[in-house]
């Protein structure tokens, strides 16, 4: 090993220069190229693996979250199937058994006053609720149908229909879980 001595300014002091050993280039290269201790290598490998796995973990969690949001409450789907069958069979008494009273009806515009109906009042306005025509956008056009036609087309609940775990809105109708049971609770009606 060859050690050459040369005058180099010391970093620690701003004063006069001191003699500091400077290793030959070959020795410096050898020192720099020595394998790193295993603990350092393991840490670097762990960090590299984490950098590779983190995006994968985030992707999997977002997919599983999306899948969970797409699976509707089985009780809500069962309720919707019964409700839809009763509506399509024109059985307003059966629909009334799936309705919470007082039943609230509001206008279609924000701030429109609401009115509560008992069972008898609900049965009196039932036909108007079902035949009211509404327009919904579909691509570049607007489709106009009656609520009964929309209900006929809707065989399964979509995640976009579910507002919260206890509330669902389908077009002009609102359904809520009340004391563990899904019920028809509100409708919007253009007077």
How far is the N terminus from the C terminus?
Answer: 100 Å
> Main sheet, how many strands, which sense, barrel?
6 strands, mixed
**What share of residues is helical?**
40-55%
What spatial order of strands do you see in the largest sheet? 4-3-10-9-8-7
Q: Show unreliable segments.
A: 58-69
The count of β-strands is 10
Radius of gyration: 36 Å
Strand and helix order: EEHHHHEEHEEHEEEE
Which features would summarize this protein structure in a list?
10 strands; 191 residues; alpha+beta; 6 helices; single chain; six-stranded mixed beta sheet; two-stranded antiparallel ribbon; elongated
Task: Provide a compact summary of the structure.
This protein has 191 residues and is α+β, with helices and mostly antiparallel strands. The protein has six helices and ten strands; from the N terminus they run ββααααββαββαββββ.
């Amino acid at each position: 090993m060859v050690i050459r001595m040369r005058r180099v300014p010391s970093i620690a002091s701003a004063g006069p220069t001191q003699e500091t050993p400077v290793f030959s280039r070959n020795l410096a290269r050898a020192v720099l190229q020595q394998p790193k201790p295993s603990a350092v290598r393991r840490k670097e490998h762990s960090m590299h693996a984490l950098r590779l796995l983190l995006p994968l973990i985030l992707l999997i969690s977002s997919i599983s979250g999306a899948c969970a949001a797409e699976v509707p409450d089985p009780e809500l789907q069962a309720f919707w199937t019964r409700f839809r069958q009763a509506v399509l069979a024109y059985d307003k008494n059966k629909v009334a058994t799936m309705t919470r009273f007082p039943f609230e009806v509001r206008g279609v515009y924000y701030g429109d006053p609401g009115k509560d109906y008992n069972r008898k009042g609900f049965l009196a306005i039932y036909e108007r609720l079902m035949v009211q025509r509404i327009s919904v956008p579909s691509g570049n056009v607007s489709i106009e149908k009656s609520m009964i036609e929309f209900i006929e087309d809707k065989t399964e609940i979509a995640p976009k229909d579910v507002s919260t775990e206890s509330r669902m809105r389908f077009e002009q109708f609102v359904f809520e879980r009340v004391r563990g049971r899904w019920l028809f609770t509100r409708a919007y009606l253009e007077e």
